Amino acid sequence: MAISDTNATLRRGESRARRRGLAILGFLLTVATTFLGLLAVTFFIGRVVPIDPALAIVGDRAPAHVVERVRLELGLHLPLYQQFWIYLKQALSGDFGTSVLTTHPVLTDIKRVFPATIELATVGTIIGAVLGVPLGVLAAVKRGSIIDQIVRVIGLVGYSVPIFWLGLLALLLFYARLNWVAYPGRVDIVYEYSFTPVTGFFILDAAMQRQWDVLWDLFRHIILPGSLLGYFSLAYISRMTRSFMLNELSQEYIVAARAKGLSEARIIWFHALRNAAVPLVTVIALSYAGLLEGSVLTETIFAWPGLGLYITNSLQNADMNAVLGGTVVIGSVFVGINLLSDLLYRTLDPRTRSR
């Protein structure tokens, strides 16, 4: 019997290891396939756009033989599948070409501007989560009341109002009229030469260097665009929190908790919200990814020197290398955060591990 039990235990262990190995292999194949599809879509969209990369480099007044030589150097005379193969090899090595606008490698430009986008999206997500989750909980608890209606209207406006219109209105009110925030940009010109960034994340750098005047100036610049993004994040997070909480509050364990005499506050915040927090992780992660990729208009309105503004300026100047490189980076980050949120969901919810 002992030998039989030992063999059964070994077989179960081998089966679990096999399933785990297959799950890891499937995850890696999913990542590779998704990234390959992202590169393919980005490449072919770049080829469909009616912009000649050779003319963008040499200008439309260049002689025909110069344009033709540049086309040969770029490989534009090759079939599309060969061009894609070259693009794929270069992209996998981190080479997205040289920006026509800055004359720097695209990856170097992205490393310079992307921290600003991450900083802005992080502030927006923090604001959206800190305010959106309590509002969603309150709306679910007070379902059908005036409070619930107000929260739902706030979310509806966040979904409906164009961000560029709301951004311009916020600038007119809080900057031009009330002078509560600093003018568009990331830092005052006074500190551009006295402040030396190290990591590219200005708020972190200023705090580490204990330059409190610079930190305050950075706060006055980021608070308005960060709050604007936070509002749109709040609209999504509060709506989803309300939905999750309504589902949890209708479960039998809530009825049992009330029958045991637990306080309503404990039931809501320590039982219902705890179970609703598992899918909320995915919601907040996707909201963060959405702010990273969707802050183009916000960065343009507030002259925020991030990846969104970089792509906008590159597109206006027909700098397709920069546009495609920025698009691939944003898409990769979105896919990465999506996969990370899925892993966190499986880690926090044991019921999904066996699926």
Account of the protein in words:
The chain is mainly alpha-helical. Among the domains are: 1-40; 113-290 and 333-352, MetI-like fold. It contains 14 helices and no strands. Helix 1 packs antiparallel against helix 14 (320-348). The longest helix has 47 residues, at 2-48. It is globular and about 85 Å long. The protein starts with a helix and ends in a 7-residue tail after the last helix. 28% of the residues are buried.
* CA-based gyration radius: 26 Å
The CATH topology of the domain at 113-290 and 333-352, please? Answer: MetI-like fold
State the total count of DSSP E strands.
0
**Strand pairing plus helix content: what structural class?**
mainly alpha
Principal-axes shape call: globular
Poorly predicted ranges (pLDDT <50, ≥5 residues)?
A: none
Domain ABC transmembrane type-1: 114-345
Family: Belongs to the binding-protein-dependent transport system permease family.
InterPro entries: BPD_transp_1_N, MetI-like, MetI-like_sf
Keywords: Cell membrane, Membrane, Transmembrane, Transmembrane helix, Transport
Concise summary:
By secondary structure, the chain is mostly helical.
